Amino acid sequence: MQEYDLVLRISPQEIEQQVERIAARINQDSAGQNLFVIGILKGSWMFCADLIRHLQMPVEIDFVRLASYGMETATCGEIRITKDIETPIGGRDVLVVEDIVDSGTTLAWYVDYLRKFQPASVRICALIDKYERRSVEVPLDYVCFRTEKGFLVGYGLDYAERHRNLPGIYEVQFSQ
Ligand code: 5GP
Ligand code: MG
User: Ligand 1 in contact with 104 (CB < 6 A)?
Assistant: First the structure.
């Protein structure tokens, strides 16, 4: 594996602040709903765990795992579900929680798929909107951080399954 350094981009304190800000908005928009939260594995689990602790309405949570046949650091081609949610979502108010939206391919595909089950509403919450390579439009209702580019790890995000446990978010910088 090529050698690399990790450079801190977002501190745990900044994450906490943004998670609280986004949770407050969700609390306003979804007051009175029974929210069905779907976390996209593996990357969003830490974000989900923090986010739902600030939600004040009744919340159910389930997880989906999506696999894409792509390169190591970019999504391209076919997407499939390798672990599905286990509750019917017909008529439910759904909040999909994703770690990073890059090209938009994964999330656009999944939201399209979810709509076939006729939920009452589907909203999307992303920890990071990485917009430079966006090729498929996907409406992001809640975003904690926006960044142009860079490969990020930590706070649930991995590089080759490493670094998910870091409390901050770091950029991977490969040695020349
Ligand atoms: P998209 O389909 O939007 O191109 O890719 C989305 C998925 O690619 C994300 O859910 C994430 O799993 C992965 N991904 C995109 N950018 C990054 C990144 O900077 N770091 C990590 N760890 N994963 C990323
Ligand atoms: Mg992901």
Answer: yes
